[in-house]
Amino acid sequence: MDDNNPLKIVFQLSAQLDYEVDDRRIVTILRKQDHWIQRLARKLTFKIPAFRRIELDDYGSFVLLSIDGKRTVEEIGAAMSAQFGERANPLFERLLMFLNHIEKQERFIVKMPALQS
Q: What percent of the chain lies above the pLDDT cut of 90?
């Protein structure tokens, strides 16, 4: 992995990521709500779901389903361009911002370690 070129970074899905894919290929992230306050509230019969559901749009779903631990950001971007055409622009700015967010804030993906040559 070349940290100087963000297009050469490879990501993989986090082992803790739970998600569903519907027949439209839309991804819904399932985030467990397991804080002790939430568990207590459930015992007190408050209606707090065990999982929070986050439905991604078609772009986010496409990107998340493209992350396989082998494809670079550049390859994912090329596939996204082929799938969505001009609607995906500005392609790499949006893609890198999305990947950065789901890596740093949400922890849905992780960077792969650099390959040893």
A: 64
